[in-house]
Structure formats: structure tokens, C-alpha cells
């Protein structure tokens, strides 16, 4: 279903926004979206809103958005919606910036840029007149990602998570799935080839952003604006190993653990069982083996003038 809502420009500089809304993201935060859209219009922005009906719609809308019609594409949803929008933008005509209305479960991109998902005023103000940062994307087997791409237990958890439980309980569904998976998973070796070296572990996450799964720092030196990936390699296997990492992450101590390697690289190959899943920005985006690198394209991301 497409909902269109056009208003005339209030000022010469008012941004023309195409809002792409995933109504299934998070726990259906309709009120927050309506509040942000109202504020955007009050700030003089010209708002056109479309709603997705299935996976792939957000990408198609973003691909078709022309700079003749829009200044900004606003991804209204979670990180998976942002991922789709970005994949559409890199194939589209270019010349349009990206912004977010964080309505998802984890909203890691919002955390990364200092945007408070509960602060409608800050979100609207950012979209209306926030500064633009040039963001380098990662690409895994041809699929672009903004935040991270990971192989091992986390990708299996993403693949197996119960969607109904996620809608009902949010992040708790990932905890439940992690516990379930940890006991049945055989922790096969995951190998990373980067900078002419081979690194072995049980889980590997190539990070573009610092945060992982929430406000938890996995790769302290990763930056969206940097043309580098920081790959985090976790060598320990088994439930005990995963509990060690699962406890260190929320304490922001993961990268301090002596066996954890964080390697800076522009490209790498992640190998493991052929066909094993690779998660990108919280959705399955590729299968192993995965060639991961910095994409030649960048996106212009609108960020808050002062982080919340
Ligand atoms: N209308 C739709 N119906 C079903 N799935 C959709 C629809 N629109 C988008 N999707 C898919 O929904 C999935 C989840 O969306 P998204 O990641 O934005 O929300 P989330 O999982 O709640 O948030 P987060 O990634 O922050 O945890 C994505 O894979 C996206 O492609």
C-alpha cells in the first residue's frame, strides 16, 4: 500500500523527503512515526511517505528515487530497513542523502550517530537540517551493509530467530535463540583471510560501526566514515566460550579479552562451512564463503548536529 502525503515547500532550502516505512519493524511504533512526520512538515519539509508490504519493497523504492524529486530518503524502520534502502540507493541515480527514523528492535545505526530513537524532536530536526557525513559501506558477495557482517553463531541466531517472538518481546527473542542455538551448534571453524594472513576462530564479524547488537562496543576503532573494516575474530567455541563473549560484550570488554583479535582491513574472505549464513546489519545477506570489502560507493548520511 502506498500512502502519499505532499505539502508545499515552506522555505527555499526545505528538504524534500521520501520516507520509506517498514510497518513490521520493531513493535509497530506508528505513533512515533506520525509524530516525527508531523514535526517534519512543521519544519517546512516536503514529505512523501510510502509503506512497504514485503521484503524488497524498501530497496525498490530507494532505487527509483531521483534527485529531481527528493533530497533525502528516510528509512523508517530498523537496521534491516536501512540496509535495504542503502542497497537500493547504490543502484539508483545517486545525489540523494540518507536519513533514519529508528523504529526497529536494536536501532544500531541510530546509536552509532547519536540519534535517540525516543526523541521525535531530535529525529525531525536532524532530517530537516542535520549535517551530512560521507559514509563508506561494506559489501559482502555483492550485497552492501552499513554496520556489520558476521559469520558463526550470530548469523545462525539471526537466521533462526522466531519473528513472532521478536515482534512480541524485542531483543529478548535474540537471547532465547542464542541459548537455543548455543546448545545445538557445533561451532565449526571460521577462517578469515585478510592482509595476507589467515586468522582462525569460531565467529567473525566485519564491523563498519563500533556497536554490536545494541549499545555495546565490539570494535572500538570502527567508524562509519572510515574506508576500513575492523574484523573481530572470536576463537573460543562451545557454550562456555559464547557465555564469556556474551558477558564481555555488554560490559564493553569484548575487544579487551586476550584471545579476541580485532584486525583492520580493506578486504577479506570469510570461510567456513560452504553455504553457512552471513548476517549483514541483522539480516541474512550472503552465504559462505564471503568476499567482504569496502564498497566503491559511499552514501551521504544525515546525522544529528549535536548527538542526543
Ligand atoms: N512490509 C514488510 N513485511 C515484511 N517484512 C518486511 C517488510 N518491509 C521490510 N521487511 C523486512 O523486515 C525485516 C526486519 O526489518 P528491520 O530490521 O527494519 O526491523 P527490526 O528487525 O525490528 O529492527 P532492527 O534491525 O533494528 O533489529 C527486514 O529484513 C526487512 O527487509
TrEMBL record:
Coiled coil: none annotated. Residues 12-144 form the DAGKc domain. Pfam families: DAGK_cat, YegS_C. SMART domains: DAGKc. GO terms for molecular function: kinase activity. This is Diacylglycerol kinase family lipid kinase. NCBIfam families: YegS/Rv2252/BmrU family lipid kinase. It comes from Magnetospirillum sulfuroxidans. Keywords: ATP-binding, Kinase, Lipid biosynthesis, Lipid metabolism, Magnesium, Metal-binding, Nucleotide-binding, Phospholipid biosynthesis, Phospholipid metabolism, Transferase. Its cofactor is Mg(2+).
Amino acid at each position: 500500500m502506498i500512502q502519499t502525503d505532499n505539502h508545499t515547500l515552506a522555505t527555499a532550502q526545505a528538504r524534500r523527503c521520501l520516507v520509506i516505512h517498514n510497518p513490521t519493524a520493531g513493535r509497530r511504533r506508528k505513533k512515533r512515526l506520525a509524530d516525527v512526520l508531523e514535526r517534519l512538515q512543521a519544519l517546512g519539509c516536503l514529505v512523501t511517505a510510502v509503506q512497504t508490504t514485503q521484503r524488497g519493497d524498501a530497496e525498490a523504492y530507494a532505487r527509483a528515487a531521483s534527485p529531481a524529486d527528493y533530497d533525502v530518503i528516510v528509512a523508517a524502520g530498523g537496521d534491516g530497513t536501512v540496509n535495504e534502502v542503502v542497497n537500493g540507493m547504490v543502484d539508483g541515480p545517486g545525489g540523494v542523502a540518507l536519513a533514519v527514523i529508528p523504529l526497529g528492535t536494536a536501532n544500531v545505526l541510530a546509536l552509532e550517530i547519536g540519534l535517540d530513537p525516543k526523541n521525535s524532536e531530535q529525529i525531525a530536526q536532524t532530517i530537516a537540517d542535520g549535517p551530512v557525513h560521507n559514509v563508506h559501506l561494506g559489501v559482502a558477495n555483492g550485497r552492501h551493509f552499513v554496520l556489520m557482517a558476521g559469520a558463526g553463531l550470530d548469523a545462525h541466531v539471526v537466521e533462526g530467530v522466531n519473528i513472532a517472538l521478536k515482534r512480541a518481546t524485542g531483543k529478548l527473542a535474540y537471547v532465547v535463540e542464542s541459548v537455543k542455538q548455543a546448545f545445538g551448534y557445533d561451532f565449526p571453524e571460521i577462517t578469515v583471510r585478510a592482509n595476507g594472513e589467515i586468522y582462525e576462530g569460531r565467529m567473525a564479524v566485519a564491523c563498519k560501526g563500533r556497536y554490536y547488537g545494541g549499545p555495546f562496543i565490539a570494535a572500538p576503532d570502527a567508524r562509519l566514515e572510515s574506508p576500513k573494516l575492523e574484523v573481530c575474530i572470536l576463537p573460543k567455541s562451545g557454550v562456555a566460550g559464547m557465555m564469556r563473549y556474551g558477558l564481555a560484550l555488554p560490559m564493553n570488554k569484548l575487544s579487551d579479552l586476550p584471545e579476541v583479535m580485532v584486525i583492520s582491513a580493506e578486504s577479506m574472505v570469510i570461510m567456513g562451512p560452504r553455504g553457512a549464513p552471513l548476517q549483514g546489519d541483522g539480516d541474512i545477506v550472503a552465504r559462505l564463503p564471503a568476499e567482504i570489502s569496502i564498497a566503491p560507493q559511499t552514501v551521504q548520511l544525515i546525522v544529528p548536529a549535536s548527538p542526543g
